[in-house]
Amino acid sequence: MNREVFFSLLALDSYNRGYGANVDGLWETGRIGAAKIRPFRPDEQSGWQDAGFYAIAYEWNGETVISYRGSNFEIVFDTIDAALDSPLVKDIWNGWTVGAGFNQASQAGLAIAFYEDVTKKSVFDFGNGAATLTGHSLGGGLAGFVGALSYNNAVGFNHMPYGLAAKSQALFEATRRAVSALGLDHYTVAQVVEGIEGRFRDFVEPTRTTDIGAKSCPLLHSIPAPR
Fold it and tell me: What is the tens place of the pLDDT at every residue in 217-227?
């Protein structure tokens, strides 16, 4: 079977296993074709349903493949609380925001954690060929997000954007490593960034600033205007 066609079947299979499966009677064990499903460890799926996240891993011809589930458009209108707890709302808040560049969305973190659980490698252990990622829609975006960080191949089908979130995650990791290298581990990354901004503002003229259209970033607005 064509490789991409088989990956599309694995992307579809993630919708049919575990909680909220579209098909009854399929377990999280066994095989799909020549791919053997990797068993889950106890508590490995902790927090998944609350975040609307699901993924599953396979061993196929000596290759590890991770399939991330896409969006679930189910929504319940019985009550406001039920609607807010619906699968679609969970995906919007916890997953679709990754497509908008928010790398701290819970599904992004769970996608990284599952990759690291499966491969036993850090997502920042670049280009190790530890796994191939796949998924459809939201799941394809999560596959691309993890693939971009780890330099592993990802095969997405009608996937959401992921590049901006991956860049944000990589920048955050680079900052974390710089903080560690400078011996500032007793501070959080956010505290270090705030401290840099504060010290920088102490040395500039507050009345001479260049408005570069990034009003959400006070550091950039503290750059002195050209003389």
Answer: 333 333 333 33
* Cα→Cα distances 52→19, 47, 107, 205, Å: 10, 9, 8, 48
213 vs 196: CA distance, rounded Å:
21
pLDDT digit string, tens, across residues 25-50: 899 999 999 999 999 999 999 999 99
Specify whether the CB–CB gap between 172 and 124 falls below 8 A.
no
Which residues lie across from 58 on neighbouring strands? 37, 65
